[in-house]
Amino acid sequence: MNSPLPLLSVDDVRQYITENLRAADFADKRVLLIVPDATRTAPLPLLFEAVHGQLSSAAAKIDVLVALGTHPEMPQADIRRLLGISDADSRGRYADVELFNHEWDRPECLLSLGTLSEADTREISGGLLEEAVDVAINRRIADYDVLLVLGPVFPHEVVGFSGGNKYFFPGIGGAEILNFFHWLGALITNASIIGVKETPVRKVVDRAAALIPVERRCLAFVVAPDASLYGMFYGTPESAWNDAADLSAQVHMRRVPKPFQMVLSCAPPMYDELWVAGKCMYKLEPVVADGGELIIYAPHMHEISITHGPLIEEVGYHVRDYFTAQAERFSHIPRGVLAHSTHVRGGGTFVDGVEHPRVQVTLASGIPRETCERINLGYRDPSTINVEDFANREDEGVLLVRKAGEMLYRLED
Fold first, then answer.
1. Peptide bond before residue 225 is cis, with ω within 30 degrees of 0
2. Residues near 329 by Cβ (< 8 Å), separated by ≥ 6?
3. What pLDDT shows up at residue 4?
4. What is the pLDDT of residue 72?
5. What is the CATH architecture of 10-251?
6. Which of 6, 156, 230, 319 can pair with 222 through a Cys bridge, CB separation 3.0 to 4.6 Å?
7. What is the rounded CA–CA span in Å between residue 380 and residue 312?
C-alpha cells in the first residue's frame, strides 16, 4: 500500500460540496438521493446534511432511496440513524424528506427499461454468456428529475470496483440483471476481477445504466477505515467513479511479498450475516497460500443470509466448477446465490466428481458447527480464538486483519 494520503477535514468536505454541487443546476428539480445501506463505511450523516443544505433552497423535492440490492429492508428509524437525522430534524428541516427502501423482489415496484440483447451480452462477456436480459429498476425513479448517487468506491469482487452506476444495478435494480452479471463475475472469478478497473461486469452495469431515462449524477468518495475521506469526485456516474476508482486503487490495496498459510479475517459489526461478511474472504483470497486457511472471525454473526438463507443452505458453498459441471442440477437456483457461493468458497477445481478448493474457509461465528458442515465450510468455536495470538506474525505466514472486508490484499507481482 502506498503511503497514506492526507484526509479531508469536515470543512473541506462542505467546501467541496458547495463548490461542485451548484444549487442552480437543481433549481425546481425533484432529486432522489441514492445511498448505500449500513454495510458500507461512509460518513453519510455529514454528506447528507451538506448535500441537503446545499440543494434544499433550490430543489423542488429531495428524497432518499436506500440501494439495498437484495439486502434486508431497513426500518425507518435505522435509515434516519444512517443519515444522521435526529427526531427533531425529522420534524424540522428534513420534515419533507421521504425515505424509501429498494424493493427488488416486488415486480409491481419495478420498471422495465429495455433489454440487453444476446448480441450485447455475447460481446460484453467475451462469449462467456449469450442471452437476452431484462433491465428493470425501481419504479420510483420516474417521479424525479435527477438521480444523485451518494456512495463510496472500494475494490469489489463482482464488478472490480464498486460505486458509480453500481448504485443503480444492483443497488436499485431488478433480479434478472443482478443475477446475470453476478454470475458473469463468478465465471471470471473473484481473484481475477477484484481491484481491476475495467471489467466485463462494469461494462454491463454501465450499459444498463445508459437506459435510465432520468438525469444521473454522482458524488463518489473514497473512505479511510474510520469513515474519514481521502477524496470526493462529482460528475456523471461514469466520470466520478473513474476518478474515485483510481484513488481507491491507491489507498485500498495492500501489497505483500508472499502468501500466508493462515489468515484471521475479522468481520466488523456492520457485517451481521455471511452474505456481506463474505467480503472478509473476497478481499483476502489473493494472499492465502494454496492449502492455507482463512478464518472469518465474527462472534456477532448468527445468520447466513436473511434474504437468501434457505437457498444457500440448500446449495452450500462450492467452487465455480462444481456448478458449471452440474448446471442442470442447479438451474432452479438464482445465479446471484450461486455466485455468492463460489466467491465465498474461492478458487479450486471439480474433477471426476471430486471438489478440490484451493483454500480452507472456516467460520468462527455464531453459526453452529452442524450448519457450517452442512454448507461445506469449516467451523471454529470463536471463544477458542484470542485475536492477539495472530498479531505481528506475518514473517511466520500468519496474517491478522482487524477490520476486514474493504481493504484488498494482493501479492506484489
1. no
2. none
3. 66
4. 92
5. 3-Layer(aba) Sandwich (3.40)
6. 230
7. 20
Report d(CA 172, CA 357) in Å as an integer: 33
- Contact at 8 Å (CB) between 113 and 216? no
Query: How far, in Å, CA of 229 to CA of 3, rounded?
Result: 15
- Give the closest residue to 160 by CA, choosing from 207, 196, 203: 196
pLDDT over 70, % of the chain: 99
| CB-based burial label for 145 (10 Å; 0-12, 13-18, 19+) | middle
Please list the alpha-helical segments (H only) found in 346-392.
369-374
Phi, psi of 126 (to 5 degrees): 65, 30
Burial class (CB in 10 A: 0-12, 13-18, 19+), 216: buried
Cα–Cα distance for residue pair 235/215, rounded to 1 Å: 11
Name the grid cell of 57: 433552497
| pLDDT tens digits along 224-239 | 999 999 999 999 999 9
Domain coordinates in residue numbering, the chain: 10-251, 255-411
Identity of the residue numbered 124: I
Q: Is the domain 255-411 a CATH 3.90.226.30 member?
A: yes
d(CA 297, CA 389): 13
Q: Whole-angstrom Cα distance, residue 401 to residue 383?
A: 18
Torsions phi, psi of 298, nearest 5?
-150, 70
